[in-house]
Amino acid sequence: MSKKSTLLIGTRKGLVIYDKAATDKWVFRKVEFLGLPVSISYVDALTGTWWACLDHGHWGNKLHRSFDKGATWEEVAAPKYPEGEEIKEGVPASLRYLWAMASMSNGQSSKLLIGTEPGGLFTSDNNGSTFELNRGLWDHPSRKNHWFGGGRDHPGIHSILIDPHNPDRIYVGISCAGVFETTDGGKTWNPKNKGLTADFLPDPHAEVGQDPHLLVACDSNFEVMWQQNHCGIFRSSDGGENWKNISDETGEANFGFAIAADSNNENVAWVVPAISDEIRVAIDNSLCVCRTEDGGKTWDTFRKGLPQGHSFDITYRHALDQDEETLAFGTTTGNLYLSDDHGESWNCLNNNLPMVYSVDFI
Fold first, then answer.
1. At 73, is the pLDDT very low, low, confident or very high (cuts 50, 70, 90)?
2. Per-residue confidence at 303, pLDDT binned at 50, 70, 90?
3. For all residues of the chain together, what is the average pLDDT?
4. What is the DSSP letter of 58?
């Protein structure tokens, strides 16, 4: 049975909250920030703080936190780029989007991290009251000339992974730049993109300029990492030193945005595939979920409970999550699906949500 009993759904029109009832059924609780785009939500396991990242469009990005599990919220100042910083020569740097959140502890204090567009990683030592730009990554010599926007105008840090055994070892996924690692707490960073392919670059195997859509790791073995990439699905078994393309060349598991890695089994992962970037809808207008149980050597496709022949759904990078045998994902057409058997069959929790940006079990 799943240990987590709440689902946070970030949508185009608010943060939707579901709870698991005593009957094991998921029931709607409420919606927060009604009418506002929630790009991502996050619960800091170290402090218990709930976070919501809002994209107000005209009014910019806002950051809210809750100390009482969503009963009340307060706005805090969003990360701000220092005066004079530039995305590239002549283009001032300002916050465009809040992409990802993570937290870490060295046993004495905790730190909150936020990944943003245009490619800045910010940290806070006081639970989000103030933020500081990580200079090691922002000042990396590759950034101004070799990082660039993919689906958005500028590069964005959408994934943050922290080694559970070594808080000084952190990975970020950047679209478009690739995977970068620090082993000294953020002072210096190195690209970890060997084996990745970017067929849109003059040099498809360039060290910098790759386009991971999402980077995840296995909780029980942090050395095993997965990424859903613009150019396929890739896996590393050595902490990102080498990546191998594990896409299914004859099946569905290839292009997509979201990927979930099993917490306990380093060989198991799920993706929600789609037609290529130019089209971005479900393959053959039929929604499916693909799972590998052997590290990507083979993939199985599951469709039970999902719409076939009339679906335009696609799942964004943060809109798939897994908690033991239970998985949930949301789509761009406002559908929310849940599986209690490792993704083999699905039930629809809601057909009428706004566009879904993120899904999190907490």
1. very high
2. very high
3. 96
4. G
Two structure tokens written together for 189: 């960073």
Q: Residue 255 in contact with residue 278, Cβ under 8 Å?
A: no
Q: Which positions ≥6 away from 62 have C-beta within 8 Å?
A: 53, 54, 56, 75, 78
* Structural contact between residues 55 and 61, judged by C-beta atoms closer than 8 angstroms: yes
With 50 as the cut, is the pLDDT of residue 202 above it? yes
CA distance 240 to 194: 8
Picking from 112, 75, 114, 79, the residue whose alpha carbon sits closest to that of residue 94 is 79
The per-residue pLDDT for 1 is 42
| Domains of the chain, earliest start first | 36-361 (2.130.10.10)
209: region left, alpha or beta (phi > 0 left; psi from -120 to 50 alpha): left
Quick check: 16 and 6 in contact, CB under 8 A? Answer: no
Q: Please say whether the dihedral angle defined by the alpha carbons of residues 312, 342, 40 and 198, taken in this order, is positive or negative.
A: negative
At 220-264, the pLDDT tens digits run: 999 999 999 999 999 999 999 999 999 998 999 999 999 999 999
Question: Which residues, 6+ apart, have CB-to-CB distance to 121 below 8 Å?
Answer: 113, 114, 115, 133, 134, 137, 138, 157, 160, 172, 186
pLDDT digits (tens, 9 = 90+) for 120-157: 999 999 999 999 999 999 999 999 999 999 889 999 99
Sign of the torsion angle spanned by Cα atoms 50, 177, 146, 169: positive
Long-range interactions of 72-80: CB distance < 8 A, separation 24+? 73/32, 73/33, 76/128, 76/129, 77/130, 77/131, 78/131, 79/114, 79/116, 79/120, 79/122, 79/131, 79/133, 80/131
Contact between 237 and 276 (Cβ < 8 Å): no
Q: In the chain, what is the straight-line distance between the N-terminal and C-terminal CA atoms, in Å?
A: 14
- Pair of tokens at residue 360: 């999190």
Give CA–CA dist 78/84, Å, rounded: 18
- DSSP-derived letter for residue 33 is S
